[in-house]
Design goal:
- By secondary structure, the protein is of the alpha+beta class.
- It is built from 6 helices and 14 strands.
- The protein has a 5-stranded mixed beta sheet with strand order 4-5-6-7-8.
- Helix 4 crosses helix 5.
- The longest helix is centred in the first third of the chain and has 14 residues.
- The protein is globular and about 55 Å long.
């Protein structure tokens, strides 16, 4: 809805399944070994894919709570001992405050991976939460048009704070000239991020004109300005 009237994204069953399996592969195909703390809403594409479909694809236990309430979430971490926590930066910021003000009240060291999305993650927020939990805190990126996840920080300890990480398996990503949309830019140059993969939408519902503006030869134009470094890590800049 950022461009005026809201547009409905058409996602196929194959789109959603592809993204679930991409996330499963990103987590190392740990079938049946993990518990997800699922407190981000499933009506949003982020919660739907990272918790509901992705968690089920991994045969994970889903520790459900219908609303983010800091103390309740910390109690759930202590009692349910989840290993994976999909979150947004605002959640981590508030949890940091509680853990800072009540040091030693909650044992949150069961967490192994925290995947943050939905907004830019400040390195200091990630580092502070990691200090309390000993978890690896990484940032990801996506948009509803991509089911939604396209990038994530590696979970093997090689993530780079301040970046959105690397493209998921079977996902292509390029930085192109923002004006022409054609010329592929060199590492370090700022341009538009475009992506291609099995998670990319069928189009906007009953809106071929809007679809034509964002889809080009199988590539989806995200509208986000980004850079890519020599090692393939992407960073959103505007």
């Amino acid at each position: 809805g950022t461009t005026g009237r809201p547009k409905a994204v058409t996602l196929s069953h194959a789109n959603l399944m592809a993204n679930a399996l991409q996330l499963k592969a990103w987590c190392g195909n740990r079938t049946g070994r993990d518990t997800f703390l699922a407190v981000i809403p499933f009506f949003h594409s982020y919660g739907l894919s990272t918790c509901a479909t992705g968690g089920v694809a991994m045969a994970a236990t889903l520790l459900l709570h219908h609303r983010f309430q800091p103390e309740t979430v910390l109690d759930l971490i202590q009692t349910g001992r989840p290993s994976v926590f999909p979150a947004v930066p605002a959640m981590l910021h508030v949890l940091n405050q509680r853990l800072r003000d009540h040091q030693g009240k909650w044992n949150v060291k069961s967490l192994m991976w925290v995947i943050s999305g939905g907004a830019p993650l400040m390195p200091e927020t990630a580092n502070e939460f990691a200090s309390y939990t000993l978890a690896r805190v990484v940032e990801g990126f996506g948009l509803s048009e991509c089911s939604p996840v396209t990038h994530a920080g590696p979970l093997d300890g090689n993530a780079r704070l301040g970046t959105i990480g690397l493209p998921l398996p079977d996902t292509d990503a390029l930085i192109v000239d923002a004006e022409t949309g054609a010329d592929v830019l060199e590492p370090g140059e700022v341009g538009e991020l475009i992506v291609r993969g099995p998670q990319v939408m069928l189009g906007y519902w009953n809106n071929p004109e809007a679809t034509a503006q964002i889809m080009r030869d199988g590539w989806l134009l995200t509208g986000d300005l980004a850079t890519r470094d020599e090692d393939g890590f992407f960073k959103i800049v505007d």
